[in-house]
Write a structure and sequence with these properties.
The chain is α/β, with parallel strands linked by helices and about 550 residues long. The chain is about 65% helix and about 10% strand. The chain has 19 helices and 9 strands. Helix 3 runs antiparallel to helix 12 (about 285-320), helix 4 (about 85-90) runs parallel beside helix 10 and helix 12 (about 285-320) runs parallel beside helix 14 (about 370-465).
């Protein structure tokens, strides 16, 4: 049959590809799923989401989701002389551990599954050593003084044996808590934190002492023990019945335990070994063992996996994002990079908060997880608050970095404006220089032609005034023309060429008019003669001659008169 199942599994593996985080498709949770299934797929779904924003954490979540059902660690606890070792012997159906009036178990004994019997001692210094099976009593029980030094060095002992029940669970036998031996107490408390299910052995007649109740309270809510009242064979039925005893014990223990059973380990072990049903019936073993095997072991397996999911998830998130907060180093000037880092961290923490919130919802909705919820739900809620506070802190940092970025961008903008203004001013100054050069270049010809232009202007104006017989104004204009000529006669002569001759005739003509009006006929005659045929120079020349002739005659006449 096993071979057949192996073949079927091999065919499945050959046909169906392995599901990896890369090819995994997110699954919608179903209401009829168990809490372990919901937690498993919730973690897988979020692992897929994280793959895009933080692949490293996504892969870690994926590995966390692969947690398989583990054998629960079932710890047997109680004070000495309650029959713990005998109880374990009864569960295993054979006398494995030594029991005695003195505290028989001096060292914690972990009983696990193995293909063959093996005894391994684990020492306080971290080393381990295998011993022959016959040395189990010497290593774990009081009495053999020669091995006391060895026992003081041992942390715990592991006994492996091929027992069907041990393929599903691991049993731990602990020393009594009320013994006067500090090493016993320390060894027992060491395994209290590792236990997934606690069976607390009480002795009839000595139930719920102060030390027992104090020790039970240290276990935590999810480790509420199952109370086993041993040695019920000592009950005197004439004085009280088993039910009356158990009811009284329940009233004492109240809600500090999950359930209460009454047994006689001695009767049960003897009934199993000798196959005597009457002893088994009197021992009350059947009722306990049925509940233990069919109910409590399965609960322990399920709760162990759920606790493992929660504790590992919280530890992973804490170590990944809170303990490594020092890695989130912000630069002093690159505010955009800072904001990018903070945004990335906020996105991650936001998704983390959603994950933890979904886990908390799964826990609180499952009423069968009341004991786990009482202990772990507050931790999850506190963790959610911690994440929220952290997100708020990062949002404040992001806001501050945003303000810094705005200020930086504003400063850059102002700097750009200032640089632009300076460049503009420089360009304007440069442009003015260029314009000045252009104007200077353009002004050179103007300066060169200015006398010519003015000379031409005054010539034209003088001509017009003469035509209008405005001789005084014409003479004034000609005077200006002479001034211009005196400033640069060479350029005027050079540039005016033929026009210069006309200008010179005009000046001579004007001078002739001036002398004529002053009746200086000799000088008038001279300049009219030089004017040549300009305008009416010739006419004026004749008039001057006539005037000179008349003057001369008058003069001669006067001479004759005298």
């Amino acid at each position: 049959m096993k071979t057949f199942y192996k073949i079927i599994q091999g065919v499945k593996n050959a046909i169906l590809p392995e599901v990896t985080i890369e090819n995994y498709k997110k699954v919608k949770l179903k209401d009829n799923w168990s809490s372990t299934e919901k937690l498993n797929y919730t973690i897988k779904n979020y692992a897929k989401d994280f793959l895009t924003i933080n692949p490293e954490f996504g892969y870690k979540l994926w590995e966390l989701a692969k947690i398989k059902d583990e054998k629960p660690l079932i710890t047997i606890m109680g004070e000495f002389k309650t029959g713990k070792s005998t109880f374990i012997n009864t569960i295993l159906g054979q006398e494995v551990l030594k029991s005695d009036v003195t505290p028989a178990t001096a060292v914690v004994t972990m009983i696990t599954y193995g293909n063959e019997e093996k005894l391994v001692a684990y020492f306080k210094d971290g080393n381990s050593r295998e011993y022959p099976i016959y040395m189990l009593g010497s290593l774990t029980a009081e009495g053999d003084d020669s091995k006391q030094k060895l026992r003081n060095k041992v942390k715990y002992v592991e006994l492996q044996m091929p027992h069907k029940l041990l393929s599903k669970i691991t049993l731990v036998d602990t020393p009594g808590l009320n013994v006067d031996n500090q090493s016993h107490i320390e060894a027992t408390k060491y395994f209290m934190d590792k236990a997934d299910l606690v069976l607390w052995i009480f002795a009839y007649g000595k139930v719920a002492s102060r030390t027992e109740l104090a020790a039970i309270s240290e276990l935590g809510e999810h480790l509420k023990p199952i109370a086993i009242v041993n040695r019920i064979d000592e009950i005197d039925e004439e004085e009280e019945t088993l039910e009356e005893v158990l009811e009284e014990i329940r009233s004492k223990l109240k809600t500090s335990v999950r359930d209460v059973f009454g047994i006689s380990s001695i009767f049960a072990l003897k009934g199993i070994q000798e196959n005597k049903q009457n002893l088994l019936d009197e021992s009350g073993w059947a009722a306990f063992y049925e509940a233990f095997e069919q109910k409590f072991i399965n609960i322990a397996i399920r709760e162990k996996k759920i606790v493992s999911y929660i504790s590992n998830l919280l530890w992973l998130i804490n170590s990944e994002f809170f303990q490594s907060e020092q890695d989130l180093v912000l630069t002093r000037r690159n505010f955009k990079e800072n904001i990018s880092k903070l945004n990335e961290r906020l996105t991650i923490l936001g998704l983390t908060r959603d994950l933890v919130s979904d886990v908390e919802s799964i826990l609180t909705k499952d009423k069968s997880l009341n004991l786990i919820n009482k202990e772990y739900a507050p931790k999850v809620v506190d963790f959610l608050d911690q994440v929220s506070v952290h997100i708020e802190s990062l949002e404040k940092r992001e806001f501050k970095e945003g303000l810094k970025l705005i200020q930086q961008e504003k400063a850059k903008e102002n700097k750009v404006k200032q640089e632009t203004r300076i460049r503009k001013q420089r360009l304007e100054a440069s442009g003015n220089r260029i314009l000045a050069i252009i104007l200077a270049i353009a002004f050179v010809p103007f300066l060169l032609f200015k006398p010519v232009l003015l000379s031409s202007y005054y010539v034209d104006k003088s001509m017009t005034l003469l035509d209008e017989q405005k001789n005084e104004e014409a003479l004034s204009t000609i005077e200006r023309l002479e001034i211009i000529e005196s400033t640069d006669p060479y350029s005027i002569r050079l540039l005016m060429s033929s026009a210069y001759k006309e200008r010179e005739s005009l000046i001579n003509y004007a001078k002739g008019l001036r002398y004529y009006e002053e009746k200086d006929y000799d000088m008038a005659l001279h300049f009219f003669y030089k004017a040549g045929d300009f305008k009416d120079s010739l006419v004026m020349l004749q008039e001057v001659q006539e005037s000179c002739y008349q003057t001369a005659n008058a003069h001669l006449a006067n001479e004759n008169y005298y």
